[in-house]
Structure to design on (724 residues):
């Protein structure tokens, strides 16, 4: 499904062809038919896996880096998660059907593609606007699609329409998707709560420039609920408004592109009825930013990319008081995180064989937040927030949050060097080095409450509670990657690619356990590990072994990926601060040792996908009655034994899944049908997290063996799309 594709958009052409994988139209369409989750469209790309949670909010993991470590760009924008559990990540704001182009850079991200991230890049964009021509002065187009998936009765519709003259164009796109909780394999039970309902609308007005366009768009999301089986809370409302201005134009000296945007999210969490219980949490977040880039032709050989961007995130996060509380719990008040990024990148096409790309980038991040308080003015809630008279804080080893300055500024520098060598028509090699820096996010620095009983901050799907650390430093990654591609001259019959990589990270941001309570969950505190190392390789290949036959063409495809992540710890969790105040009972209830928990010297990093691969047989048949594309694939995932023990990450058994699908296209009509997990295998996704609903009474389990979330059983899907 993944093809190295010719990129034609001005300004992005050059850097994306280095180290990029673009999903072609057919690949996109096939993924769109199978899931309501935009991040899931990337899961078949070697080196990409998913950290799953809600039905439309998975987080992509690229070469072992997840979440904020990956540079995710949606239509040129940085959109942050306005949630302590990262339930509304950037990709959840664009429905799969709205994606016109999807690119993954699993290896090295050129500085012109973004900063403040240390992993690869995922970008999704709508298609650039097409205008009418003098021959056909008015253009009218539309599309209508619907789908159904049996495992969770997920049904949805997508609609789009556009009207264009030679100079103007108006687009509307909308989508609706609703699902109940899904069923686990082997006739398993419902995994609760995992249902969702999501609606998205987007209007765009575009105007043609002599060699480009500008566009203004406004989008809205209304998401009434989304269950998260690996979190303590569910999303019970996510409303957002997103507005932007875009332009792109070519000139004799080069090209320019620009973007200005504003995004407001109103997010509410509670427990969905099937989970039971109630505890309201609210987050209001905004994103505001611009990006300006110029691509200047210095000579026949050299192109200079320069750019500047600004991105500001603000967050208010509070948990409203219900009858049993004195006051609202303030998790974040007026938190802000600002970033100014500036880069220069020189691309040189030395000759038809050698291309080099050298980039330098600065990101200055400044952040701040206001004072906080807990649900009450009692000692336990005040302890972490304010200085309590009589407490000797030098003895307890903490400083209450309101007693210290919160403003922090980081000045970060990124460097990238990439070269590609194409010696002949049969091979291509890329070698890259990057130094990348990421500053902590607002929760990593400012989540203020410690101890396991406030386990509401955390996005790893592990059920642990995380406390921020004002002394966190940015993490710095040194990435080395190499990629070799071999293929036939036409790139039609066979291709093989192999991409090993190694990343050394200094000051890796990590949750160190302070306490392990009776339920087996941990009270974590964000620290910088002195160092962490990630290494692995992706391999893929395709062979069209029967280009022509009465039954069409036949090809085999294979891919495999391996990643290993190890960090150096050996530190000690903080000593239980309640103990000196005669609070030993609290310490023992929270499993918080007075002398502090000793961390192992070496720790396995969290969310590392075990060795996995896919073998597939593909068939394409063109007939007078349309085109058939058939796919039979076998996914193999090995047992996950290298788990982050200090997070309580579950081990998961290996499994084999068989997936079958076929698509039929006749002119502007397209039908996709298929079965995922054909044999209804019961399995656990290795990055699916802990099944929280199973850990509350009356369920019992062993604390060292927290239950993993059962993955989806057999699902029959059908999708119909018509264009007119
Ligand atoms: Cu949330």
């Amino acid at each position: 499904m993944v093809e190295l594709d010719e990129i034609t958009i001005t300004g992005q052409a050059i850097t994306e062809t280095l180290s990029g994988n673009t999903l072609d139209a057919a690949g996109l369409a096939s993924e769109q038919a199978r899931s309501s989750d935009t991040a899931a469209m990337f899961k078949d790309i070697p080196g990409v896996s998913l950290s799953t949670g809600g039905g439309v909010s998975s987080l992509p993991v690229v070469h072992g880096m997840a979440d904020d470590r990956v540079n995710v760009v949606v239509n040129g924008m940085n959109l942050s998660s306005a949630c302590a559990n990262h339930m509304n990540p950037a990709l959840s704001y664009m429905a799969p059907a709205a994606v016109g182009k999807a690119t993954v850079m699993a290896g090295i991200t050129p500085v012109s593609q973004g900063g403040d991230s240390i992993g690869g890049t995922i970008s999704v964009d709508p298609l650039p606007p097409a205008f009418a021509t003098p021959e056909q002065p008015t253009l009218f187009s539309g599309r209508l699609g619907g789908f159904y998936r049996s495992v969770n009765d997920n049904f949805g519709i997508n609609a789009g329409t556009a009207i264009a003259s030679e100079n103007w164009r108006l687009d509307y796109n909308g989508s609706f998707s609703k699902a109940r909780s899904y069923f686990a394999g082997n006739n398993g039970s419902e995994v609760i709560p995992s249902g969702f309902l999501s609606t998205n609308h987007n209007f765009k007005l575009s105007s043609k420039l002599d060699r480009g366009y500008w566009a203004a768009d406004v989008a809205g999301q209304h998401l009434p609920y989304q269950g998260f089986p690996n979190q303590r809370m569910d999303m019970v409302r996510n409303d957002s408004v997103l507005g932007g201005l875009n332009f792109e134009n070519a000139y004799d000296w080069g090209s320019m592109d620009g973007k200005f945007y504003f995004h407001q999210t109103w997010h509410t969490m509670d427990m969905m009825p099937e989970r039971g219980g109630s505890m309201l949490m609210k987050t209001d977040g905004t994103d505001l930013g611009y990006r300006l880039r110029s691509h200047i032709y210095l000579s026949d050989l050299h192109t200079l990319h320069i750019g500047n961007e600004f991105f500001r995130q603000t967050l208010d996060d509070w948990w409203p008081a219900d009858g049993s509380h004195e006051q609202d719990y303030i998790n974040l008040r007026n938190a802000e995180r600002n970033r100014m990024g500036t880069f220069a990148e020189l691309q040189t096409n030395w000759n038809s064989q050698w291309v080099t790309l050298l980039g330098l980038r600065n990101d200055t991040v400044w952040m701040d937040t206001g004072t906080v308080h807990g649900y009450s003015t009692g000692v336990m809630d005040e302890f972490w927030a304010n200085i309590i008279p009589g407490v000797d804080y030098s003895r307890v080893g903490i400083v209450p949050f309101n007693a210290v300055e919160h403003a922090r500024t980081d000045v970060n520098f990124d460097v990238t060097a990439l070269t590609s060598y194409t010696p002949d028509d049969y091979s291509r090699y890329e070698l890259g080095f990057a130094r990348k820096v990421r500053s902590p996010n607002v929760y990593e620095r400012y989540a203020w409450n410690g101890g396991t009983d406030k386990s509401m901050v955390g996005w790893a799907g592990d059920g642990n509670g995380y406390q921020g650390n004002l002394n966190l430093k940015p993490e710095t990654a040194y990435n080395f990657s190499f990629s070799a591609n071999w293929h036939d001259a036409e790139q039609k019959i066979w291709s093989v690619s192999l991409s090993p990589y190694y990343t050394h990270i200094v000051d890796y941001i990590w949750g160190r356990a302070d306490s392990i309570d009776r339920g087996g969950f941990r009270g974590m505190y964000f620290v910088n590990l002195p160092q962490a190392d990630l290494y692995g390789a992706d391999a893929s290949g395709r062979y069209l072994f029967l280009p022509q036959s009465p039954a069409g063409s036949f090809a085999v495809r294979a891919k495999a990926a391996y990643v290993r992540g190890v960090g150096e710890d050996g530190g000690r969790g903080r000593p239980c601060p309640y103990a000196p105040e005669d609070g030993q009972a609290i310490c023992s209830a929270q499993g918080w040792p007075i002398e502090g928990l000793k961390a192992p010297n070496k720790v396995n990093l969290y969310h590392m996908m075990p060795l996995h691969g896919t073998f597939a047989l593909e068939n394409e048949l063109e007939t007078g009655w349309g085109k058939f594309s058939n796919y039979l694939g076998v996914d193999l995932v090995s047992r996950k034994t290298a788990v982050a023990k200090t997070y309580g990450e579950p081990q998961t058994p290996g499994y084999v899944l068989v997936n079958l699908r076929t698509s039929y296209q006749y002119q502007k009509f397209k039908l996709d049908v298929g079965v995922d997990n054909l044999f209804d295998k019961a399995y656990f996704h290795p990055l699916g997290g802990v099944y929280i609903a199973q850990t509350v009474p009356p369920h019992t389990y062993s604390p060292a063996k927290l239950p993993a979330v059962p993955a989806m059983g057999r699902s029959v899907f059908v999708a119909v799309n018509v264009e007119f």
Remarks:
- The first helix runs from residue 13 to 17.
